[in-house]
Amino acid sequence: MPREIGLNTLAYMHRSADNKVEQKEILKEIKEMGFPIVEVRREYILSGKTEMKEIAELASDAGLKVFYSVPAELFTAGALNEQLGIYFEEASLLSAVQLKLTLGEFQGFTAELAEKLRELLTAFSVHLTIENDQTAEKGSPAALMAFIAEARKASLDIGLTFDTGNFVYIDTDPFVAAKEMSEAVTYIHIKNVANAADGIVLSGLESGLVDMRRLLSLFPDSVPASIEYPCGVGEEVTETIIADYRKIRSW
User: Where are the membrane-spanning stretches (predicted)?
Assistant: First the structure.
């Protein structure tokens, strides 16, 4: 079975002049382009719970599976993020099947921490996945796999999101990272980067530092992946998304 390829709504970031993505307005277009998955971003939600319910209904009508991306950390100073329950509730409102966070300041599981997290994972039918960020302390393969090892000891079903571009920011070879993390990865963010005069910048699918086709081949086809980079300005966005989606599916 071919890999499921989704679309993170970050792709539409520069479609309008104010860089605001009206996510509920693009769901039909995303489905018509052939995507089975849409990854909704919390920072693009403009009208709170009302909009979340609308997105859930429209995504259901379109036959789209919803993933939920939250720009927040699972742990703060060793404790669970105080907003974590809210994030799970929002994912439920969206009828999302997955919730993505970054790791944060993980200092190990106590019995109390593990139980609190287990209660949320049991109460909500949402899979939790943790993404590598752009810091060595919180986003390195060693840090993430140490977390996964502890989560498994505590019988917590948590996966990893492998962001293909973020490893470059911490001077880590993404191919080495893939080999070290592959067995725990349940989702992939497709994002390429390049070197520029002012540092590392986002790039096109095949114009960056990472051989994306070869990197994706290191993961089983059962692991879904989503396009997660701005795809141009104005009407160029749709054209780029379609072209890149076709390219990825041809690999």
Answer: none
Concatenated DSSP letters for the chain?
-PPPEEEEGGGGTTSSTT----GGGTHHHHHHTT-SEEEEEGGG-SSHHHHHHHHHHHHHHHT-EEEEEEEEEEEETTEEPTTHHHHHHHHHHTT-SEEEEEEES-----HHHHHHHHHHHHHS--EEEEE--S-HHHHSHHHHHHHHHHHHHTT--EEEEEETTHHHHTT--HHHHHHHHGGGEEEEEE--EEEETTEEEE--TTSSSS-HHHHHTTS-TTS-EEE-S---STTHHHHHHHHHHHHHHH-
pLDDT value at residue 91: 98
DSSP β-ladder status, 199-202 and 193-196: antiparallel
239, part of any domain: no
At residue 20, the pLDDT reads 83
Rounded Cα distance between 191 and 206, Å, is 10
Q: Is the model's pLDDT at 224 over the cut of 90?
A: yes
Residue 13 domain flag? no
pLDDT(210) > 90: yes
pTM > 0.85:
yes
Number of domains composing the chain: 1
Q: Is 32 inside a domain boundary?
A: no
Q: Which domain holds residue 61?
A: 37-188+202-226
With cut-offs at 50, 70 and 90, classify the pLDDT of residue 19: confident
Task: With respect to residue 11, please indicate whether it lies within any of the assigned structural domains.
Answer: no
